[in-house]
């Protein structure tokens, strides 16, 4: 399997790249800065320089040719303002989705976040509200294109604790956290389970083994 990961230097992305490389798949990580390439190589992936805030659909699509799947793992990150929430969390996601359509990629995984649907509650921090709106609009754009073979994964609060290999995964879950290790493991399992296409899934820590949780989500 050849998997292109947008936001290839992100913490979840690097974990997923290692998992793919360990089992013999080819991972390609799109990165914004040349100095990020070394970490991507160390994870066993192929770094490709591509700034998703300035690239065109055609430029991104060229990097997706012959990919079996695309994973959108980019994000403006903590400390960024409302403008970059829009250009990265929304704009870059829309760009990559459109590029995947142009490249006729048959599988698209989107890392989103819990609670992004609906209007932000009154009193929400303006930057966080911008983030919620950006993610919701990006998810809506992806869901409008069934030919992407999309799955939207919405993890709870991310932690750097060691993964347990056990999660709670479904259309709706309680509030909670989840280890980045386990998010990467779920993404890997989703890549192997095309029956999860067309599903939006919440993810938190739990007691079900990852492969069983993904199988149940596909069956449901």
UniProtKB/TrEMBL annotation:
| Coiled-coil parts of chain | none
Give the highest taxon in the source lineage.
Bacteria
| PANTHER family linked | FLAVIN REDUCTASE-RELATED (PTHR15020), UPF0659 PROTEIN YMR090W (PTHR15020:SF50)
Q: Which Pfam families does the UniProt record give?
A: NAD_binding_10
State the protein's name.
NAD-dependent dehydratase
User: Which organism is this protein's natural source?
Assistant: Streptomyces griseoviridis
Residue limits of the NAD(P)-binding domain? 7-194
InterPro entries in the cross-refs = NAD(P)-bd_dom, NAD(P)-bd_dom_sf
